[in-house]
Amino acid sequence: MRKLNTYKRIAIKVGSALLVDQHTGLRSEWLESLCSDVAALQKAGCEVMIISSGAIALGRSVLNQPSGALKLEENQAAAAVGQIALAPAWNNTLSAHGLIGAQILLTLEDTESRRRYLNARATLGELLKLGAIPIINENDTVATSEIRYGDNDRLAARVATMMDADLLVLLSDVDGLYTAPPAQNPAAEHLPVVDAITPEIEAMAGSAGSDLSRGGMRTKIDAAKIANQAGAAMIITNGKVNHPLRAFEEGARATFFKPVKAPKSAWKSWIAGNLAPKGLIFVDAGAQKALQSGKSLLPAGVKTVEGTFARGDTVAILLEGSKLEIARGLVSYDSDEASQIVGLKTSEIEDVIGYSPRAAMVHRDDMVMST
Ligand code: GLU
C-alpha cells in the first residue's frame, strides 16, 4: 500500500496551497522535490500524470490581489495570469529531472460528453505512451459556474478513471479523513483506511475548504467515490513537506481509500462518475424495486421529470418525495417527451409520441445503481 511503484498508472493531484504561498508566490523548492519524486517513480516504471491546481492562487499572487472572494471575471483573469506562469515552472522543473512536461487544460464537457471524453483520453494516452508527464488543470479562463468542475479533486478523479489509473493521490494541506472536521472538533480521530464510502463516511467530511483551494473534504470524498467505484485506490496525504511522495512511502500520515473488488466497466464507471446530471427522474417504489433487481426503468414507474435534457444525457433517478439517488443513467427520451409519457404503459406511448417507443426510459445497460 505504501510502495507507490507497485502501481502502474498514478494520477497525482496537487493542491494550490502546496504550490503557492500567498505571500511569497511559487514554492519552487517544494516543486523541485516533487518532480524529483516523480522522476524516481517514472524510473521505476510507473506512468504518472499530474492534476495541478494553483493557477488562480499564483495569478492572485502575481497580481497582488488581496485575499477574499473574487468576482468570476477576476478569477478568470487571475487564472490566465497564473496558468502562464505555472506552465514554465512545471516544465523547467520536470526537464531538470529529465522529464517531458505536457500541458492539458480541460473543461467540464471534456470528461462529461462522451465524444470529447474519448478525444481527451486518446491524447492523454498518447502522451503517457511517449513518456511525457501530463500537467492537467481546468481551463478556468473559459469555465463559468454552470460548466465547470470547480474543484480539482473531482477533476482528478474523472481524469484518473478516464485513464484507468490504478491510484489517485491527493496531495493536500490535510493529512487525511477524520471522524469529524478536526478544526472544529479537537476530539476528531484520523482514519488510516476507508474500506467503503458509506453514508457515515460521507457525514464525516463536513464542507470546509482552505483559503486557497476550492475543494474541502467533501469534494475529496466525491473523488474517492468516483475513483474507488472504477477500481482505483485513492490516498489523501499532507503534501506540504518536501518530497511528499517519498514522505508518504516512508510512513507520513494518510488515509487510504480502498477500491471496490469488482469495479464497474469503463462505460458504467463513466456514467456513475458523471459530475453534472442534466435532469432528475422521480420514480415510485415499484420501479425502485425493479431497478434494484437489475431491470430497466420503464415510463410506467416514473412519477415526475425535472430539468431540460436531450436523449443520451445523464439523469439521476430518485425515489419520489425523497432526495435519495437510486441510480444514474443515460435517458432514452428528451425531457419534453419524457414528461408526456410519465406513468404510461408501453402500449399507450406510441399514440402520444407518434413513433414506436424505445425499450425503456433508461435502459439497464446504460444505468448504474447509486446505492
Ligand atoms: N483550477 C483551480 C486553479 O488552478 C483550482 C481548483 C481547486 O482549488 O481545486 O487555481
Sequence-ordered SSE layout with sheet pairings:
Layout: E1 9-14, H1 16-19, E2 20-21, E3 25-26, H2 28-43, E4 47-52, H3 55-63, H4 72-96, E5 100-106, H5 109-112, H6 114-129, E6 132-138, H7 152-162, E7 167-172, E8 177-178, E9 190-191, E10 193-194, H8 199-204, H9 217-229, E11 233-238, H10 244-249, E12 254-257, H11 266-272, E13 279-283, H12 285-292, E14 302-306, E15 314-319, E16 325-331, H13 335-340, H14 346-353, E17 362-369
Parallel strand pairs: 1-4, 1-7, 4-6, 5-6, 7-11, 10-12, 13-15
Antiparallel strand pairs: 2-3, 8-9, 11-12, 13-14, 15-16, 16-17
The protein binds glutamic acid.
Count of individual helical segments: 14
Q: Uncertain spans, ≥5 residues at pLDDT below 50?
A: 208-214
Overall mean confidence score, pLDDT: 92
Distance between the termini: 27 Å
Name the helicity range.
Answer: 25-40%
Beta-strand percent range: 15-25%
Oligomeric organization of the protein chains: single chain
Q: What CATH first level of the largest domain would be assigned?
A: Alpha Beta
> Which molecules are bound in this entry?
glutamic acid
Please list the strands of the largest sheet in the order they lie side by side.
5-6-4-1-7-11-12-10
CATH topology of the largest domain: Carbamate kinase
Helix/strand/pairing class, anyone? Answer: alpha/beta
What's the CATH architecture name of the largest domain? Answer: 3-Layer(aba) Sandwich
What about the largest sheet? 8 strands, mixed
Number of strands: 17
CATH superfamily descriptor of the largest domain: Acetylglutamate kinase-like
Which shape, going by the Cα principal axes?
A: globular
> How big is the Rg?
22 Å
